[in-house]
Amino acid sequence: MASSIGPHDVIATVHGTDANSALRTVDQIRAIPEVIHVESWIHLKVVKEEH
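-> structure tokens emitted (51 positions)
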């Protein structure tokens, strides 16, 4: 999770054992009253990742 400047206030990565478990987590975030908007996507393949 990271705070951000720009069109998104927070960016987070959600991992799950399958797509449904990840979706449940995203739905829990959406249910938080202070959360106004959630945008999500699925990476089909990670080509390169550096931290």
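Residues 1-51 form one domain.
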